Design the sequence.
């Protein structure tokens, strides 16, 4: 059915992944995640800098990675958004990222309760949760991440009488500017 039109190499890889999930994990994400954890462990506070993963990764990767992805190949991303943030922006960046995502869901929760669980608000929460969930094993690209950062500001737009972000109330304009700045930083 659904995978029939995606090509034989995709179907073969998918069948192998489903029949031997541990081996598939070891041959893909773990070969990137373990070095990413080492990068973070070596540089815990601020790490190596935004967009530095591809240049730093080869120093931490294992020779097994070369067997799977080829010689002189470097992963450009950690293939796990929180791990990517930790490996390139350290604990400070990870805590800020977690605070921002947590603030979104807190504001979304307050806003959706105030809006009597309007289907649009429920859909927005599901969309954001799905994006973050898929980014636990992948990474955002500009076309998708830009929408994510813009949607992150949506609970802040409109009447502030229904909600406040934890620790500090933000105006809708400030939240939009913050989302635009983070989008710009992510694309830089």
Sequence:
């Amino acid at each position: 059915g659904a995978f029939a039109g995606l090509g034989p190499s995709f179907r073969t890889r998918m069948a192998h992944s489903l029949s031997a999930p541990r081996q598939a994990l070891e041959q893909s994400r773990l070969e990137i995640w373990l070095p990413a954890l080492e990068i973070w462990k070596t540089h815990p506070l601020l790490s190596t800098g935004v967009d530095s993963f591809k240049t730093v990764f080869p120093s931490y990767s294992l020779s097994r990675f070369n067997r799977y992805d080829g010689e002189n190949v470097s992963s450009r991303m950690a293939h796990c958004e929180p791990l990517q943030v930790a490996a390139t922006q350290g604990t400070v960046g990870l805590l800020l990222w977690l605070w921002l995502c947590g603030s979104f869901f807190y504001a979304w929760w307050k806003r959706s309760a105030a809006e009597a669980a309007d289907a649009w608000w429920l859909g927005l929460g599901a969309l954001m949760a799905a994006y973050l969930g898929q980014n636990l094993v992948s990474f955002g690209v500009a076309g998708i991440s830009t929408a994510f950062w813009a949607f992150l500001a949506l609970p802040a737009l409109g009447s502030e009488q229904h909600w406040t972000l934890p620790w500090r109330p933000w105006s809708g304009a400030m939240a939009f500017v913050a989302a635009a700045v983070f989008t710009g930083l992510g694309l830089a």
